[in-house]
Amino acid sequence: MPGPLIESLARQGITRRTFLKYCATLASMMALPPSAGRAMAEAMAAARRPSVIWLPFQECTGCTESITRSHSPTIEGMIFDMISLDYQETLMAAAGHQAEAARLDAMQDNAGKYLLIVDGSVPLGLDGAYSCIGGRSNVEMLKEAAQGAAAIVAVGTCAAFGGIPKANPNPTGAVPVSDIVKDRPIVNIPGCPPIPVVMTGVLAHYLTFGSLPELDDKGRPKAFFGETIHDRCYRRPFYDRGKFAKTFDDEGARNGWCLFELGCKGPVTHNACATAKWNGGTSWPVESGHGCLGCSEPDFWDAGGFYKALSVPADPLRIAGVAAAAGAAVGVGLSFANRAKKGAAKKAHQPVTLADLEKS
Amino acid sequence: MTTAQRVVVDPVTRIEGHLRIEAETDASGKITRAYSAGTMVRGIEIILRGRDPRDAWAFAQRICGVCTLVHGIASVRSVEDALHRAIPGYSIPANAELIRNLMIAAQYVHDHVMHFYHLHALDWVDVVSALKADPKATSALAQSLSGYPRSSPGYFADVQKKVKTFVEQGQLGIFANAYWGHPAYKLPPEANLMALAHYLDALAWQRDAVKLHTIFGGKNPHPNFVVGGVPSAISVHTRGGGQDATALNMVGLQTVQNVIRQMRDFVDQVYLPDTLAIAGFYKDWAGRGEGLGNFLSFGDLPSENFWNPDSYLIPRGVILDRDLTRIHPIDLDADNEIQEFVSHSWYRYSQGDAQGLHPFKGETELGYTGPKPPYQQLDVDKKYSWMKSPRWQGKSMEVGPLARVLMLYASGNVQARELVDTTLKTLDVPVDALFSTLGRTAARTLESKILADAMQGWFDRLMANIKAGDVRTFNEQYWEPATWPKHMQGVGLMEAPRGGLSHWIVVDDARISNYQAVVPSTWNAGPRDAQGQPGAYEAALQDNHVMHDPKQPIEILRTIHSFDPCIACAVHVTDPAGEELVQVKIK
Q1: Of A243, B33, B354, B574, whose CB is crowded by the most CB atoms within 10 A?
Q2: H-helix or E-strand spanning residue B301
């Protein structure tokens, strides 16, 4: 230090101290030791920016759009100071042959060292003709680019788990990246789209340590996907007290009551929406009145309908009634019991359903 | 200098999705024939079959993450229209219409600004030339155009230094391998530096602009919707406040108000003046790039409700052969008006590929006949795209900002007339200049101004309703599919930033039995039809484009980008090869 990043931050009126603070915050958000913050700052301020190649397959560009909404670090901050974004079709100036050449050059110049980001699923039907770039199939491009990649980041539920193209009946034979690449480290960052800070946080971790963060059994960084939406939901107290909105526009809805009966998938969805929130902490789906769709879980499109309550208890009114009658104390007790149950299941890698929660 | 040849641009970058352009040139480098091909499919309409129509918006919305709200809105409208056709008087609350209008307009302004600076600008702005600019002269130029506060010499000097450092490091990243220094770039260094600074400013601005969607829809990209209204209940009158509330409390509404102001300011102080300043150097592009002369708009932004098109801010209708004196009505249900053709698309129709099908009777069966990848060239005499070819009364139509601005102009919208006339006067070009690549890009800016201005009115009405105690946002009647008729169908129309969008839904026993999305980029980017009539991209490229150097096809990019392609939108229909169409079994 100070490398070009610190200089450029200084020009923007951002002091070295502020930058270090950002790194420390990011480190603590990812549950890393305090020293990691400084290491992060040093790595990100390094002279040569690591090459990043971003390949778009069966995608909607929502993941790219999402990362442009990153507040800290910003997309322009990343492009100018943290990484060398050598191929990104939505943002790059070059097109056609020149674009292809840029990708091939970056792959050659940084062989074994570049980070490969993929959004979108990969169709295997019709010899890959369902999705081609420059006359070549996605699967061929992925295999080629994966060979020289140090690691692969599958952003979005499509790249991570197959996403909407893979939804029943999967017309194009879509598969996730991990079905094709078996010999490179892969981190899945699901979400439709993923939260910007989750994408940039994983990038910062990789740039700092040259490795991927600790992952769960679905290849997701535990720091962001370790808990369910329900665990951290600000409406959780209403769930515990049995207070549920019955429609999108009743007194309960206006008072911010639990959306469980309107189909919220928060209890079975691992993501950071409830804590990180969206678009600079402005709001997040539940705060804006709609249940969680479950978009960071595999096959959420085929999970039975967005407005169907999760494994509805035999008599939802009874549960609501009991909790309401017994008062807050019981609610808190129930909540602790639920968490204990959930913790045990987590250790055994068993999925926790709402039915499990209700039983305990 | 050159011989006749075929120029292939694939991938076309700085767009949404996967687009391939093949163009044939004559010996002078002039494009004689152009072909537009979508090269990716997912099959979302097939995936939608058999599902709960109330879930459809979430699937349909994933058609596109750029114009991230439009398919969600069109989808909920299609279900609501089906209910409205079946159940007299069915509608959604006034507040929900106002909130949707605000979200639609915010999408336009956000999308158009990002398109201009981040997708289109690099066709006109030479980043390398900006390094030669004098920051003081740049400041003087910027201050002569508007009162934007970030126009000091120091500001431009900082931007220039930042870019210079970046270039000197030798890692050009997204700016590598472009056509910098190409003689087609005409801006003086100072204008290039100003535009480059605003490229960065617009990236920062857009992050805050999307907060309007986040308040109402919980996140962006892909905010949430609900059939029957909007999901965000209004918490202004609740006693709890703070934790016991939705995002739509007084703090959230203040955020919305702030975003509306920021949007207006950016359009007035940066986007509009930049468009005019840059256009002044490219007036030759007012003489090419508009090939069809036919324009279609479904209209949008109701001041009353969706079923009252007379109350729309943007009118519905068709303009033929550039004749602005006559607006033709659209009959949505007539079998021979809106149709999709597959003569040059990789699909098969059960009654033969030469006829067109109305979307309510639309079919989607895959018939890939293209080359096995990897391939060098498509056989354009046969089928060559995953996009269908929509037509109105058998004619190719252009949709989008130019169609809308022409419709507003032709129908006598006072603000549109004033804006268009002032723009033509400022640039000193005739009305014909509208029918061009430059006209299309300018139209996008002008409609952003119209919509940014209109937002405050909708917001004020929403606040007045809340103040008067009307906080209704959702029609819970007929939410339960058990209350629906056995069979119903409806069409959800809207004007997406890229043009007229229509989702056609057929519902049997509360399940989707057919879902067809006829989208803006299919109208514009679709291939030839049975009569050999080209689509809008193809016709536009065949209108007076001489390639300076076919190896650097900047001319193709300028005109294609002027449409703001969204190809994931255009291509989303498919079936597995050889497999029978999905039969919907009703339980």
Answers
A1: B574
A2: strand B300-302
B164 to chain A: closest CA residue = A80
Contact A273, A284 (CB under 8 A): yes
- Does residue B498 carry a catalytic annotation? yes
Q: Which of B115, B495, B569, B572 is catalytic?
A: B569
Chain B positions touching A132 (Cβ under 8 A) are 18, 39-40, 373, 375
Identity of the residue in A60, A128, A132 whose CB atom sits nearest the CB atom of B63: A60
Q: Which of A171, A202, A223 is the last residue of a domain?
A: A223
DSSP A308: S
Q: Which residue of B has its CA nearest to A100?
A: B11
B64 is catalytic: yes
Give the residue from A223, A257, A272 where a domain finishes. A223
Task: Tell me, yes or no, whether A233 and A191 share the same domain.
Answer: no
A80 and A219 part of one domain: yes
The region, left, alpha or beta by phi > 0 then psi within -120 to 50, assigned to residue A299 is left
List the catalytic residue out of B71, B198, B288, B561: B71
Cβ of B9 and A95 within 8 Å?
yes
Q: Does A172 lie in the same domain as A94?
A: yes
Q: Which of A117, A244, A283 to mutate to test the interface with B (most CBs of B within 10 A)?
A: A283
Nearest-neighbour CA in chain B from A284: distance (Å): 4
A55: which DSSP letter?
E
Residues in chain A, total? 360
> Is residue A164 domain-shared with residue A239, that is, in the same domain?
no
Q: Are residues A209 and A309 in the same domain?
A: no
Contacts of A85 in chain B (CB under 8 A): 173-174
Annotation says B16 is catalytic: yes
CB B121 within 8 A of CB B495: no
- Same domain for A65 and A214: yes
ipTM for the assembly: 0.93
**Domain, as residue range, for A26:** 1-47
Please indicate whether, in this complex, the C-beta atoms of B553 and A96 are within 8 angstroms of each other. yes
> Which of these is catalytic: B67, B75, B77, B112?
B67
CA distance B447 to B405: 7
Q: Which of residues 419-478 of B touch A (CB under 8 A)?
A: 471-474, 476
From B52, B200, B244, residue closest to A256, measured CB to CB: B244
Domains and CATH numbers, chain B: 91-289+436-476 (1.10.645.10)
Q: Which of A202, A78, A79, A95 is nearest to A152 (CA)?
A: A202
Same domain? A133 vs A210: yes
User: How close, in Å, is residue A345 to chain B by CA atoms?
Assistant: 30
Output the DSSP codes for B137-197.
Answer: HHHHHHHHH---S---HHHHHHHHHHHHHHHHTT--GGGTT--TT-TT----HHHHHHHHH
Contact present, B262 and A281 (Cβ < 8 Å): no
B28 CA to centre of own chain:
34
Q: What is the pLDDT along chain A (360 residues), one digit of tens a residue?
A: 344 455 555 555 556 666 667 677 667 767 677 677 777 766 666 668 999 999 999 999 999 999 999 998 899 999 998 999 999 999 999 999 999 999 999 999 999 999 999 999 999 999 999 999 999 999 999 999 999 999 999 999 999 999 999 999 999 999 999 999 999 999 999 999 999 999 999 998 998 888 899 999 999 999 999 999 999 999 999 999 999 999 999 999 999 999 999 999 999 999 999 999 999 999 999 999 999 999 999 999 999 999 999 975 433 333 333 333 333 333 333 344 444 444 444 444 344 444 444 333
Question: Do A140 and A261 sit in the same domain of this protein?
Answer: no
Closest among B105, B150, B66 to B260, alpha carbons compared? B105
A253:B247 CB<8 A: no
Q: Can you give the pTM of this predicted structure?
A: 0.90
Residue closest to A5 by CA, chosen among B166, B128, B196: B166
